[in-house]
Amino acid sequence: MSANETVNRRKRAIDFAGATLLAITVIATATSELGSAATSEPTAASLVAWVLLLLAMVKGLIVIDQFMGLRWVRWRWRGLLWLWVVTATAISGSVLLY
Amino acid sequence: MTGEPPVTTPKAAYPPGDLAIWFFIFAELTAFFALFVTYAVSYRGHYDLFATMQQTLDPEWGAVNTVLLLVGSWAVARGVVAAESLPQQKAARPVGAWLLVATLCGVGFLVSKGMEYAAKYRAGIDLDSNLFYTFYYSLTAFHAMHVLLGVVILTIVTVKAARGAYHMGATVGIETAASYWHMVDLVWLILFPLLYLIRLPA
Questions:
Q1: Is there a contact between A66 and B14 if contact means CB atoms under 8 Å apart?
Q2: Which candidate, A50, A82, B47, B129, has a CA 20 to 30 Å from the CA of A58?
């Protein structure tokens, strides 16, 4: 694959990721107007908002993965960073969901 | 054939940007993580208050904030790609333009956040109104301070980019700024649904 194609693929990936997040944001906000405040049932807005939160986590992991790709970092530092990610995700996930 | 001269992209160095910014990012993410957990625990402890007060927020303002940050992040990412793939004589204008868009989005975020605060203040809602709004103001203002710092950083790199500082082989500065900006954007992408949209299970 030529360098030009690689650059174009990166541009398309950035455009796609941005458009996806924008679309989910707009849908989540729009559906929030449809939800009922009087019930504790999960509304469509809430469900879409969870998707947005999930995508944020994916984006976060991708950003962090840039750091994980640090080839010269000693394995124990990488282990420590992964421990941070797993612990933070587990604690916040359990607090949010249960 | 497109007629474009072939470019040679140097293999990406790890991590992008300066190593120090990653320690800063992890420290900031840890602070926000602690605040999110505290918010969730308080939500459970004062469920009726939080669930009711959440309905008084305006998701439209939150969506405007989110769109501005997402467009800003997109522009920064495209600016980095432009800097990494273009030689010095061609990079200044496109890289500067992308970064200018991102900077303006950051300014737009701060303006819209100020307008949202003003509307709440006019409605008689402030930091002392109740626990939910204490969290709302604390979390969003703490984040807005990070956006403000991000705007300062982006302004500096925009000026430097316009002078031709970032191009193929000279990308550490722009990657550092972009890494920070993505962190700011990421935190808001969690804050927006958490504060404005998601009703946590009882």
A1: yes
A2: B47
